[in-house]
Structure formats: structure tokens, C-alpha cells
TrEMBL record:
Keyword set, alphabetical order: Lyase
Name of the protein in its database record: Pectic acid lyase
Any matching Pfam family: Pec_lyase
Keyword Lyase appears in the UniProt entry: yes
MF (Gene Ontology): lyase activity
């Protein structure tokens, strides 16, 4: 007698329907459980997580796209609400657009309308993407919700994909190794935290840890190769360097190839955070500190004076800045120094170099940081402590 294939088929169909139904019910139950846990987390009370690295992005939002708005904002202790914002604004590639208020209660579609259809492409500019990764990792540690771990991993994958073969990451304005806005230093500091065993990333698996560790080594190597050498002596760094030649390159029209003490201060501070500095790292630090000392400006004070407000596209100028001779003024540095002569200079948006702050037009004169005391803290506190640390013999 022939087997009843029709009966078999009917039984198989019934069994398949039962299996699919069971799976779907299981998935639905898991989804309901995850949603319940999320709702409970949203109602929870947590210790605030450091938001300092978000300040630059928030400031740019408030100065431009968010200017004149009065949005409700989450409190620092509402870490799950803030983390949900980060998930909403994360791009499909795993990174984040810059210059948003991560604490503001704003619908994603409203931001897209403000920005003419897009949140913006992912970038590390204005201290971006690596702060989101670290924040989400800490929220995952506090809540145990996998959604934040998964988003942090997507961010780390984006970070690894964006690193060039020579070890650098680009900013938003130019495709070059970027030290401006802490692009390189910010990413490397995150990778160093992971290498040093930060509890916030204790959940990372070994293969991903190994990839991140290799990424950090490549980045440190690129950083050392970027240090500018003049007449056989190492000095400091430019804001941007070529990916292949490591030579200084121009970024925005008013950011010409130069030696830049602000960005170089961040680089040196990071290099001094390395627990076991190589001879190459030690030489880089010592050379940069010598350049800072040789390049300081004494007897000059920058005076801020109020003016009738002038509205520009990106901000409203309410003050002006002027140079004043003052023998009692503490040392300061300019943003840019000529590479060959070490002469301080400034620049307008037309790309024309000038040598007096008064020759910079108002919009750039007050809308950019031309003078600062950036290396002072290194010289007085960080560098002496670093020297003492590397001079102390390591116990066997």
C-alpha cells in the first residue's frame, strides 16, 4: 500500500504552523519583556553620567540650528532618556551627526526639517561619536539593557571602518588626519581607556578588543609621524596632516598649514597619559614642550570689549577683542605659527594671512579662538608629574 503523502503533507503543514506560531509567540513575549524593562528603566533613578564631552556639540546646536528655541531638556540623572536620544539620532553607519543637543526633547523629524531633510552625516568633529559610544556603554552597565551595548558596538565598528590604513581619522572639513576639535585625541583616549581595562567596557569580546588595540597602535604611530620637524628639530603639530605623507595641510580657508599650540597641547597631554611611553613618545613630548616654551608671547593681553550685537550666520557677536601691551600679562600663544619662521599669524575667511588681530574681520576675530594659554597647565602640573613618573624605576 502506498503511503498517504497527502496526510503527511497535512501533518507537516500543521506542525510548521505550530512551530511558527510558537516562535512568533516567543519573539512577541521577548519583545514585550524588553519593552517592560525599558519602561522600568525610564522610570528609574540613576547617578548622572559625565556629559562634559557633549558640551561642544550642544554649544554649536544652540549657536546655530537651535538658536532662539526653548526646548525642554532632560536632567543629567535621566540617563536612560538621554541614551534613547542617542539611539534615535544614531546614523545607519553606526556614527552620529554633530552639533545636536543630546539632552533636548526634540522629535527626529523636526530636526530633519531644520536641517533640510537630514540629521547630518556621521563625524568625529566637535568631539562627537566617541562620547556617545562611552555614554551608551556606561548606561548599559547601569541598566543591563542590550540595546545600549549593541548601539555602542555599532559605534565602535564605525570607528574602525573610518580609520585610514595609515592610522588616522578625518574630521568633517577636510579628508586628512585631524587633530582639530580633538578628533584624533578623543578617539585615541577612548581606545586607551578600553586597553587599560575600563569597567565600562568589560563586556567587550576578545576579537573586538584585539582590533581596537591594533587601531590604537596605528593611531599613535601616525601621531608621532605627524610631528612637524624644522631644520632637524621636532616642534609640534598642525590641525590637519596628509594621510600618506603626514605633512601639514590646510583645512578651512582660514586654517592654513601651521604649527598649532592648541591642538598640540591635546596631543602632548594624551601622549603623557600612555602608561609605558616608548623612547619615541618621550622624545615627542620633550620636543613639543621645548617648542611651547620657545613660542610663548609675553607682555601682551587680549582685552574683551562690549559692542552693539552683530548677528552672523553661526552666532551673534556681542563683544570685540583687541591686543593690549601689558608687561604684567601672563604668557599666551597664538592659534597659528608659521612653520619655517615660527612667526605668529592670523587669517580671514578669504585665506589671506595677516599678522595683527586687528586685521581680522569681526566675524572671525570674535568667532574663533586666536589666542590662548593652552600649554600652561601642561607646563605647571602635567609635565612635572609625567617626568617624575617616567623617571621612577618600575618595581620588579
Amino acid at each position: 500500500m502506498w503511503p498517504d503523502f497527502k496526510g503527511y503533507r497535512q501533518s507537516a503543514i500543521v506542525l510548521a504552523v505550530c512551530v511558527v506560531g510558537t516562535v512568533m509567540n516567543h519573539v512577541a513575549c521577548r519583545a514585550d519583556e524588553a519593552d517592560t524593562k525599558l519602561q522600568q528603566a525610564l522610570q528609574g533613578t540613576y547617578e548622572p553620567i559625565d556629559l562634559s564631552l557633549f558640551r561642544d556639540s550642544i554649544h554649536h546646536w544652540q549657536m546655530k540650528d537651535g538658536r532662539g528655541r526653548n526646548d525642554q531638556r532632560y536632567r543629567p540623572e535621566q540617563i536612560v532618556h538621554i541614551a534613547e536620544n542617542l539611539l534615535r539620532y544614531q546614523n545607519a553607519d553606526g556614527g552620529w551627526p554633530a552639533n545636536l543637543d543630546w539632552l533636548a526633547e526634540i522629535d527626529v523629524e523636526e530636526i530633519r526639517k531644520i536641517r533640510k531633510g537630514s540629521l547630518g552625516r556621521s563625524t568625529f568633529d566637535n568631539r562627537n561619536t566617541y562620547p556617545q559610544i562611552e555614554y551608551l556603554a556606561r548606561v548599559y552597565q547601569a541598566t543591563g539593557l542590550p540595546r545600549y551595548r549593541e548601539a555602542a558596538v555599532k559605534g565602535l565598528d564605525y570607528l574602525l571602518r573610518e580609520q585610514r590604513p595609515t592610522g588616522g581619522w578625518r574630521g568633517k572639513d577636510v579628508d586628512a588626519i585631524t587633530f582639530n576639535d580633538d578628533v584624533m585625541v578623543g578617539v585615541m583616549r577612548l581606545l586607551l581607556k578600553i586597553r587599560n581595562g575600563s569597567a565600562d567596557f568589560a563586556w567587550l569580546d576578545l576579537p573586538l578588543r584585539a582590533r581596537l588595540d591594533r587601531s590604537l597602535e596605528q593611531a599613535i604611530d601616525a601621531t608621532l609621524k605627524c610631528q612637524i620637524e624644522v631644520n632637524g628639530r621636532k616642534t609640534a603639530w598642525c590641525q590637519q596632516h596628509d594621510h600618506v605623507t603626514f605633512a601639514p595641510v590646510r583645512a578651512r580657508t582660514y586654517e592654513l598649514p601651521s604649527i598649532t599650540p592648541q591642538e598640540s597641547t591635546g596631543v602632548v597631554r594624551f601622549l603623557m597619559e600612555l602608561p609605558h611611553p616608548s623612547p619615541e613618545v618621550i622624545e615627542a613630548v620633550e620636543s613639543a614642550m621645548a617648542w611651547f616654551e620657545a613660542s610663548k608671547i609675553e607682555g601682551l593681553r587680549i582685552k574683551t570689549v562690549p559692542i552693539t550685537p552683530v548677528r552672523f550666520e553661526g552666532f551673534t557677536a556681542k563683544i570685540d577683542r583687541i591686543e593690549v601691551q601689558d608687561p604684567q600679562a601672563p604668557p599666551i600663544w597664538t592659534r597659528f605659527y608659521e612653520i619655517e619662521t615660527n612667526r605668529p599669524f592670523f587669517c580671514n575667511r578669504d585665506g589671506i594671512k595677516v599678522y595683527r588681530l586687528a586685521d581680522v574681520k569681526l566675524e572671525r576675530r570674535v568667532g574663533y579662538g586666536w589666542y590662548g594659554n593652552w600649554p600652561v597647565h601642561l607646563k605647571t602640573d602635567v609635565y612635572p608629574a609625567w617626568k617624575a613618573r617616567i623617571s621612577t624605576p618600575v618595581s620588579p
